[in-house]
Amino acid sequence: MDVRYIDTEEGLEEARSLIGGFSRIALDCEAAGFHRYDDRLSLVQLTAGHFTFLLDPLALELSAVLEPVLQDAGTGVVMHGADFDVRLLDRDLGISLAGLFDTQIAAALLGRNALGLSALLEEYFDVRMSKKYQRADWAKRPLPQGMRDYAAMDTLHLEPLADQLRDELEAMGRLHWAEEEFRELEKVRFSRPDDDEDPVLRVKQARDLDPRQVDRLREALAWRDDIARERDKALFRVVGDPVLVSVVQRELGTVDELADLQGMNGGLARSEGEDLLERLARIDRLPDEELRGYPSPPRGSGRGRPPPEVEETFRRIKEVRNRRAEELGIDRGTLLPNALLQLIAEETPADLDALSTLPGVRAWQVEAVGDAVLDSLRT
């Protein structure tokens, strides 16, 4: 294995010349969201033939090199569990994929119980992958040799694994199922979160707070966000949601009381706690009529409980789905997720054409279970 860490323009140019000669590559991406404020693309692993390149997007502009390869439908791109990586490539490099083969999707359609790359490599090739750096900080520089070696393993065996899975899919008549899923995954794009969303909506315990506590929590979340952004740390690494909820439920008068709170980082409390206490005090001085409290959902946003006839239809088609999934030997949610069952129960399509036009329904799903679903709708 020829592994090359590329963080210079000269190295990138050499990689470009070598990559261009292959009709298929294996690809993986690493992001820094577990450690950093921003889940930026921090490493791109690319295996072509016996070359494995570890490309540093923090040091280099990679788009010009990767775009001609990844957007060429004539070049196969093998990935594993590519959904998040596809979004990263779109957001950070402006690149979409063509020619994708996702080994996780392939394994799911074959009915594999364990879909992780490590489990599949051990099953097919008796290769055991280390888990040491699963949650490593991939934005760390210089990148230690151990992390480089670990990263290279993510793409080293992807092409032979794809070959094995493709052969099995073809033998079972399911290759076109996988191809449809691959093409749909190629269409995925990054969608930026709504900047206007109230942050308290992302805290589960917020619903149980009174209006003033909710406003205190909103201020505490803003305090944490400012610190996380400044220090380039993931939010939960500054302080977790449960700790902030505990803070806003108490009347803490001093930094020492804040530092002594279970789960609170004492150093953080002593360096930044005064600001938090001042913010909370401002909320405490507001009159009740100026409190925002927990946001009300937009009118019409709540679906509510469906009518009894829809619930009964959902139950029938769920039983059909479950039986068919067992016959096919694949996961129930892979065959038809519950969200699609609910949509089918509400829309009650009259025929296969109507079923196939429902949003999210794949042609292979109609082929695999469509007739049985329609029969259950007629009973």
Description:
The protein has a 6-stranded mixed β-sheet with strand order 1-4-3-2-5-6, sandwiched between helices. The protein is flat and about 70 Å long. It has 379 residues and is of the alpha/beta class. The chain contains 18 helices and 6 strands. A hairpin with a 2-residue loop joins β3 (41-48) and β4. It folds into 3 domains: 2-186, Nucleotidyltransferase, domain 5 (2-Layer Sandwich); 199-290, DNA polymerase, domain 1, CATH 1.10.150; 308-378, HRDC domain (DNA polymerase, domain 1). The mean pLDDT is 95.
Residue windows where pLDDT falls under 50 for at least 5 positions: none
CATH superfamily annotation of the largest domain: Ribonuclease H-like superfamily/Ribonuclease H
| Number of separate domains | 3
Shape: flat
Question: Gist?
Answer:
The chain has 379 residues and is α/β, with parallel strands linked by helices. It is built from 18 helices and 6 strands. The termini are far apart.
